Every structure is written in structure tokens, then in C-alpha cells.
DNA sequence: TATGAATGAGACTTCATTCAT
DNA sequence: GATGAATGAAGTCTCATTCAT
């Protein structure tokens, strides 16, 4: 019924300890995710959610405890899937530059899929007093960063990557390139003539991905 | 009283046609800007604004018409100042690479100063049905993009910059690198040991700026 | 519990399509009706309604959607009952003059019962930009006018009623006589010594009704 | 500048004791009159008045004391002009039936001219607790009624008018016929094909006036 | 005389949640 | 397990009036 990879979800659920989601809960999550992305957390009312999901208004409190807990559930549910499959890329036999290309392609695919909730996370996470607990998100991010650092440092040791590069800032450059495009989609769609949703998706997976790959490879090999 | 460059504001005002802001209005704007950045638009109530600004709650409507009009005023007020002074950089006698460095430094300074309202703009502007009129913001963005494109194309003609680069995607890479760092400030502050506000500011103006400068120069000169 | 003829209401409801009123809703309607009559639409606050009806202030929106929708509901509810039972009067065996007498008596009873909301309708309906949808009211009015016209024209054909009479203006004369008395009740109560509410009711059903009956019969048989 | 008969106004002003209206006040009155007619008393804000009259919002309180006092001033100003010139009609040499015709024509002209404020008076005066003092209006009404009664009784003595007629109810029939048409203007304009404002005016002064004249004459001479 | 900034009160509506069923 | 009626709190905005200028 949903385009969610149930297997992964279950893995993740185990990792978090509890969390068992019924089909109805998943339905609510999916609907809410879109509404949150459209209107933000405060801009989305439980009324709206209930109506869109075609459920009783009391169900949100009933199933998730509160609106905030619902957000937390969604974030944990979605963000967690963000863990990139770098391991297998790292252990394949290709060159370091190819590895970087592959990882970037994977990252872009991931964040494009989860862009809606990521947007909300960007917003909520950067607040002084976030409404929800982002410890899971944080842990995930740090893990990914570590994996990436390991790869780059290995490349540096082999003399393939420049040592002047600030590794910690590469991830922001990758993700930021995507998100800044996404946040200014209206402008760039016009500039690049992307009138349909599919056009934008296509653009992201080809032109943007190539640009970022090129950028990162350039920076990794650049010597002043 | 405020850290606003009044001269520039007035210039901009002329450009916009009207807009005369009293000191009280400026005070409200400043307070609101912070609250919006902290809590978002929907998360900030006029009650909150009035209380923080120590004014009567009716003053918001009185001065700005409505909460949304207030946001619009703030955006026009802030975003407009975003027009970069590329012209003089372009016309100075330095090399193209130096020009790029200078422009990036200017951009970073600008967006760091306006980051709070930019965050809100990112959020509201990328919605399907934005609450406010962003035509001014859009115009500004497109203008800036054009200026930048002109510079790069000139450099390409002179054989200094690679022709493989996707010029339209450079701006997202610059801005995105900054904003992704900002949106994940909590993570990167920890990673880079930036515990005080000033530390982060300093980091942005030195390490991050250098990283971005290096990145853009790399991409502009990269040949596969 | 209420003086409402539930049977008729239900009939009307079927005619309108939907509309199911709970007892609580009926209670609110009744209270509101009086307040609207006393203070007008704009002069009545939902606060006032809630307090008088002894309900939570949010119930008005909850049940009716908005204050205006509440008015609309009341009007549809009341006005609809205005459909006169002329048919049976027309088909009884009495003389045309008797029929006119009966119909006038029925009309006066009806409008006296619904005078409060009628007053509001007079006011709102005659505005340039009415706040509510009066299509139902309009339809009802036109229907009634048509029924009346049919009767008079039949009487004219039989040579009983004068042909000089302006049929469309008879209804305004009937209703207007009542309402002008009602709107100037304070004056006429004094003139006719009607000090109690019941005295006025009595006066309406006897003296005023006779006056109107006499008036209409006079005009229908008058030959210059 | 205004279509007001200043002479009469001054006479009336003397009658009321005080009241001196500057041109600006008259301007406000005129504007307010229309707004009150359009939106009712509670539906009209001083803001609206100030804006429409192109004056400062504080002027209303400044000139008239309060919004309610403004209404009172308008009513006294307008209603007072309602005093009909029956005297000269009574003393002219024509027949009683002609006198009635003339008086009705005068009345219709008067109330059509003052219909807007009359509507408001109908509404406010019939409230249990009117917001303003209507003693002047009341006095005027009673005077007029007395004049009319005198005429009819004289006609009855001469054997021209029936003695069965309820004199006090004739005025409501006259005024009511007009106002019920006016309050349902939307319906009757359609029925009579009166699409332009002038058409309606014309209809009032010809067809409606004739109908009422005919009606009153009929009732005055009707013998069962 | 005339202004407009400023205010406290109150307008209508929607909020997230609870609780009896 | 699930509902929906009901609620108190808070949302934004407009109200008529005042007061210093």
C-alpha cells in the first residue's frame, strides 16, 4: 500500500527499541509528512491531519500521544533511513574517485526522497529550543560524517586526495547544494526550464548530481 | 540604535517605491525577526511579539496591517539589502580568481547577517502556497545570478575558467554550504569545538569562507 | 421543549436536502434568534450567545461553522416554514372573499410568529452586499406571490375582483401593514393602550387582522 | 454642495434648541447616513466613516462626542424633516379624496427620500433598549398621526369616509406598503422589471403611489 | 482646531486535548 | 479500541475612544 521499504523500517525499529506501527499509523504518518512539509509543524493542525487522513480527530492523540510525539515518530521513522550504505561502496574494488561519485549519488537519492521531512528537520533542529528530541538524528549524522571522513582520510593517505581539504565541510557542500536548489526550486526551475515535477527529479539525478560529483572531486584534488 | 546601515536601507526604499519605517517600526521588525527565526512564522504569535517588543498588541496591526504584512515588510526590508556589490569587485583590477574570492566573502557576510530571515524565506518560499509575496526576493535573486553568470562567462572567454562548469549551480553550492552548516550548527559546533556565538561567527568568516572559496575555485578550474 | 412544530421542520428539511438539528443546536438557534432580533446581527456577539445559551463559546463555531453560517441556518430554518398553506384554503368551497380573509389571517399568524427573524431578514436582505445567502428566502417569497396571484386572477375572471388592482403590490400592503405597526410598536402600543405583550398579540390577531382583511377586500372590490 | 434644504434644517435646529452644523459636519453626516443604511449601525465603524469622508478618525468623537451621538444627530436631523406639510393640503379647497391623494403622494416622496435612515430607525427604534434617544422621532410621529386623524374624522363627519375604518392603522398601511416593497426590493425589482435605480424611483412615484392612493381611498369608502 | 499614535477591550475563530460513551 | 462532542486557551484582528501635540 505504501512506497515504504518495510524491511528497513523494521530493522530500524528494532534499533530504536520499541515502535510498532500499525497500517493506520503508517497512513497517518504518510499524510502528516506531506502536510508538515507543505505547512510546517505549527502550520499544520491535527484537524487538518485528521481530515486529510480521513480519520477521527482524536486518533492522533490516541495513537501518538500528542502532535509533537507524532512529529518525533515521523522523524525517527524517516531520518533513520538516512543511514547511507557507504560500507559496501567502500569495500568495492573501484577507485577512490569512483567511490566518491557513488556515495554522492547515493546521498542525493536519499535526501531527495526524504527532502520533505528534512526540510522540517532543518527548521526545527536549528531552533534554540526544538520541540522534539533529535538525539537520533544527531547520532545518525555523526555516524555518516565519520564514515565519510574515514574514506577521505584513506584517500589522502594514498596521495589521491589533497590534504588541504576541510573534510567536515564537504558534507555541508554536498547537502547544501541540493537543499539550496530545492529551497529555491521556483527560481531554478525557471532558469533550467523544469516545468514538471518529473523534470525536476530528472535534473536532480543527472545534472545536479554530476555538478556535485564534479565539485567534490575538484575540491578533493585541487592544489593551489 | 540598530545595527542597520540606514543609508543602504534608504537607497533600497527608493528602489521599492515607498516604505518609510519609524523607529518604533524598526524596533518591532528587529524583535520579530528574531522571534520568527527562533519559532517560525506560525510558531510566533503577535502576542509574543508585542510582549517582547514591549508594545501594545494592537500596534502590530496598526503599523503593519497584519502579521503576514509584517513578515512581508521584514523580508522586503532585509532581502532587498541582499543585492551584492559585485559591480565594484568586477571592475577592480584584480585577477578573476581574486574576484571570485572577494565575491564569495561578500556573499557569506551578507547571508550570515541575514541568516535568520533567510531561514524563514527558505521555508516559506519553498511552500506550494506561500503566505506572502516574494516577487521582490525573486527579482533580487535573479539579478544576482545574472551578475555572477556574467563574471564567470567572462572568465571562461579568457580561458581562465573551465567551460564544463554549470554556472547556475555554483550559487546553490556557495549558499548551500553555508546554510547546511547553519541548519546543522549544533552538530558542527560540536565537531569544530565552537562553543560561543562569536566562535561560530569567526569560523564562518574564516574556515568556512576559505572552504567555499577553495571549492569554487577548484570547480572553476577543474579539468577531468 | 420548544414551541417549534417539529413535523413541519422535518418536512422542510427534506425539501432543503440536509439539515439535521440536534436539541442543543435548536437551543442555540432559539436563543440566538432572540438576541439577533434584539441587537441585530452585528450587535450580537458570539460571546453573548454562548453566555445566554449557557454553552461554551467554541460551540457556535463547532456546530454551525461561523456566526454567519448560524444566521443562515436560522433563516433557512425559520423562513422555510413561511410557506403558506394556501392550497387548502383555495380548494375549500367558500367564496373568494372568504378565501382572502382566511389567507390574510394565516399570513398574519405566520409573520407574527417569525417576526423576529423577519426583522433581521428585512435588514440584511435589503443591503447591497448581504452577508448570507438568501436564495432560499427568495424562492419561498416568489412561490407565495405566485400562489396569491393565481387566486386573485381567478377571482378577477369570475368578476368578483376588480381588474384595476395591482396584484403584486397587495402582498407588500398586507405584510407592510403588519411590520410598520411592529416597527413602531412603541408608538402604537401607546395609542391603542396595549401595555402587555399579550395585549399586542391580541391586537394583532383581531384588530389589525380585521383592518388588513377589510383593506384588501376593499381594494379588490373598489371601482373608481 | 448638498441636496439638503438648508432653510428647513435651520428651522428645525431652532426647534431642537441647539445644533449648529458646520459644512464638515454635514459632510460627515451625509457619508455616515449612507454607510449606516448600507451596513447598519453596528456594521459601520468610525474607521470606515473617517475613511469614506476622508477625515481623521478622531473627528467623529471630536465633532459629535461619540458614534451613538452621531447617530442621534443624524436621526434628529433627518427624521425631523419628516413633518409633513399636511396643513396646506388640508386648507386647500379640493375634495377630501383629493386631499388624501395629495397627502399620500407627499408622504411617499418624503419617506423615499429618507428611506435609508428610516430603515435604521425601524431597526433601532423597535429594539427593547434602543441605543439612542428617539423622543424627537416619537413626537413627530404622533403629531403627524394626529393631523391625519383630524382630516379623516372631518371626512367621516361629512359622510364621505366610512366610519368602520381604523384610522390609526391607515398610516402603517401607507408606510408599510412602501417599506415592505423597499425591504424586498430585490424581489419586486425582478417582478416588475426595474433594473435601474431610476426605474425603481419612477415605479415608487407612479405605480406604487397610485396603488396606495387607491388602497386608502378604497378602505375609506368601503362598506361591507 | 485638528491630528494620528496609541490603547484596552473585545470581536470571531481555531487550537490541541480530554472524556464519557 | 475507537469515537466525537465538548472545552479552555489562545490565536489574529478590529473596535471606539483618548491624549499629547
TrEMBL record, chains A, B, C, D:
TM segment ranges: none
DNA-binding region: 45-64
One of the record's GO molecular function terms: DNA binding
Domain HTH tetR-type, residue spans: 22-82
UniProtKB keywords: DNA-binding
Record carries keyword Chaperone: no
InterPro entries with a match to the protein in the record: DNA-bd_HTH_TetR-type_CS, Homeodomain-like_sf, HTH-type_Tx_Regulator, HTH_TetR, Tet_transcr_reg_TetR-rel_C_sf
Protein name as catalogued: TetR family transcriptional regulator
Source organism (scientific name): Zunongwangia atlantica 22II14-10F7
Amino acid at each position: 500500500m505504501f512506497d515504504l521499504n518495510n524491511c528497513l523500517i523494521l530493522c530500524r525499529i528494532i534499533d530504536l527499541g520499541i515502535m510498532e506501527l500499525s497500517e493506520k499509523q503508517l497512513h497517518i504518518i504518510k499524510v502528516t509528512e506531506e502536510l508538515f512539509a507543505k505547512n510546517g509543524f505549527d502550520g499544520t493542525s491535527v484537524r487538518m491531519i485528521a481530515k486529510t487522513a480521513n480519520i477521527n480527530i482524536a486518533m492522533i492523540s490516541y495513537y501518538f500521544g500528542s502532535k509533537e510525539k507524532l512529529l518525533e515518530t515521523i522523524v525517527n521513522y524517516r531520518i533513520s533511513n538516512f543511514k547511507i550504505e557507504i560500507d559496501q561502496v567502500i569495500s568495492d574494488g573501484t577507485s577512490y574517485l569512483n567511490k566518491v561519485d557513488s556515495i554522492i549519488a547515493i546521498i542525493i537519492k536519499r535526501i531527495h526522497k526524504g527532502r520533505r521531512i528534512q526540510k522540517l528537520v532543518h527548521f526545527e533542529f536549528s531552533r534554540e529550543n526544538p520541540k522534539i528530541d533529535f538525539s537520533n538524528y544527531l547520532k545518525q549524522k555523526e555516524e555518516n560524517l565519520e564514515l565519510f571522513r574515514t574514506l577521505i582520510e584513506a584517500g589522502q593517505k594514498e596521495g589521491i586526495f589533497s590534504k588541504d581539504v576541510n573534510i567536515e565541510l564537504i558534507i555541508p557542500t554536498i547537502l547544501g547544494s541540493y537543499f539550496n536548489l530545492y529551497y529555491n526550486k521556483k527560481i531554478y526551475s525557471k532558469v533550467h526550464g523544469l516545468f514538471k515535477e518529473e523534470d525536476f527529479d530528472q535534473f536532480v539525478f543527472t545534472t545536479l548530481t554530476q555538478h556535485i560529483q564534479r565539485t567534490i572531486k575538484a575540491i578533493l584534488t585541487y592544489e593551489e
